[in-house]
Amino acid sequence: MATTITMPQLGETVTEGTVAQWLKSVGDSVDKYEDFVEVSTDKVNAGVPSPVTGTIRELLVKEGETVATGTPIAVIEEAGAEKSAPAAPAAPAATPAPAAPAAPASSGNGASSSALSSASPAVRRLAREHHVDIRSIKGSGANGRVTADDILAAARTAVAAPPAAPAPPAGAGTARTSNYAQPIPGTTVQLTQARRIIAERMVESKRTAPHAWSMVEIDVTGAWQWRVREKDRFERETGYKLTLLPFFIRAVVQALAAFPLMNARFAAAAGSNPAGIYVHDEVNVGVAIGLPTNLVVPVIRHADKLSIKGLAIAAGELIDKARKGKLGVDDLAGGTFTVNNNGANGSWASAPIINGGQAGIVTMEAVVKKLVVRDDDTIAIRRMMNSCLSLDHRVVDGYVASGFLADLKRRLEAMGPQGEL
Amino acid sequence: MAVVSADSTVMNNVEAVRATLYEALKNDDRTVIIGEDVGARGNVFLITKDFVAEFGEHRVIDTPIAEASIVGIAIGMAMEGLRPIAEIQFADFIYPSFNQIVGEAAKTRYRSNGEYTCPLVIRTPYGGGVRGALSHSVSVEALFYHVPGLKIVAPSFPADVKGLLNTAIDDPDPVLFLEHKKTYRLIKGEVPNGHYTIPFGKANVLKEGTQLTVVSYGLYVHWAVEAARALQDDGLSVEVIDLRSIRPMDKTTILNSVEKTRKLLIIHEDNKFGGIGAEISAMVAEEALFHLDAPIRRLCGPDVPAMGYALPLEEEFMSSPAEMADAMREMVKF
Predict the structure, then answer these.
(1) Correct CATH for B204-333 of 3.40.50.720, 3.40.50.920, 3.30.499.10, 3.10.129.10
(2) Model pTM score
């Protein structure tokens, strides 16, 4: 394939350039990024690198000549590419006549990239909305054009395909389209990369891990009072707010230590390795953080080795980074269990989806003051919080899961009105 | 006129115009008809036959061949409280009155800051296909289409003629009322008895379909429906919309239909360049581009100065139902 090189624009205000010197002649080979010409402008002199590896086929501008930016100055034949068009100098007569360049054979009904150039605005819109690749479709329109109906049919097929298309209702006869088959008016929000990954992982988790769910109600009055006692000083010293989250994570990692199967993942059979349950030696707790556009789950590594203060700082740093969009790959990888602080807006119970490959996810719901009848039959106003657990039933059963929840509850309820953070 | 029921009467378009004008003269003393041959001759199509005998020369006024004066006098009447219905004998003769219509009538309300209005109806037969030659075949709608302050209607059915003419007479501003002369006696239909109006700016879906929207008006809506019905036998589903009211234009009906069918064919007899179809195309391109699955197409009169008298020239100018069917088929198959 031949690449035409144009006079580059060397500076925003520059409109023309002079070929100061050709560094290559016709027939010379040139490497990608190798300067092949020197260009001078009223601002700079610069070598121009070749964008491809190949052979100089034509030099279109003489040395000393000044041309407008964008003007073709040279043609480079890319290495390895078949010679297209007529070979440069007339081939000796004896050689077989060059085969006529394969005509861009009328695409007929075959799918091709020309489908794109003939795609109508409606086709483009519908293809976008239904995630259909126009090029993959055999057009039914004139000259094989892909029509809007082709896109809708492809979208329907794609939806119907996995669970073998349902048999048409008896007597359906020829396909009859309902007026209500038209898409409901609306606009499509394009998927961001993050959104796409979230969507894929959520589906994957729900599809592979049989989710079971349980909830406990926890009296967090003591932890709450402890937090209130410490929060001003903590914020002054560290700059981070002290929430209930690090108290909760502290109890979670302790409960995970008591129930190591909750800090594990179901490992499907792979190659010669049979399926198994992989129990992690590290406790790395992911913290789900909702951002306006998407969810992120940065990970507090070795969370079991951190004090409540350490957890608070680690979480504070991650939340800060998340809000500023500064989370790196390392911040997001390696989680073994996930905590979702779900109660900020008043949620009272939720059924979270397990974060890919982990054995469980536990939530903090809203902390609410309630009238509680205590063991000694006294009535008290206590701060109560529900905590919900979704678990991968392949890894653990209710026995382990409820044991884990009970342990978590006991540890949180044991937290003081005061202590060492 | 044959009465088929107590509620409606079968009429052709001439009879519908005549009946509506008669009621207007009878029910409102302010109504005046003014034009060439509207009195003694009773109009060249006999629309106002015997009106002068019944209502007198002051209400059915014959004028000289002076179109600027017909409209100019009518504008004065309208501004001073009468309800004139001016007639231009053939649309081809409207040019001398262009300044009165565009420069005066359409601007009256605006120029007087609402102090004066111009409740004027200008009726005129237009269109070809009747061997009318260069001076009795023209379509003039596009010439006036550009003018704010002017309403333009072009009904195709007797019932619409009556309802829209009543609306035009009631309207406080000037209305150009276009009557396709080939439909005058060709098209018959039931017309409800009694007074009724049809609002401007409401198109009529004559035939529903799913694969192509055809927008037309005048004589051609009848042929477009004929063509669409013929295609139905081949399994092609074409929707045909009768604009009825050219300005104001019923954008909603057009857009709803195009969003359903994704294809638009506009058919009109008037020249293609700068015609009504150009405005509809632009409107749809602006508002429904991403619903279009085919280029918008216009099947219109050729850009020649006039419709010739010779039959081959007239036929070449006019689009036939067969040509319409071909265009429809090509668009559905696109």
Answers:
(1) 3.40.50.920
(2) 0.54
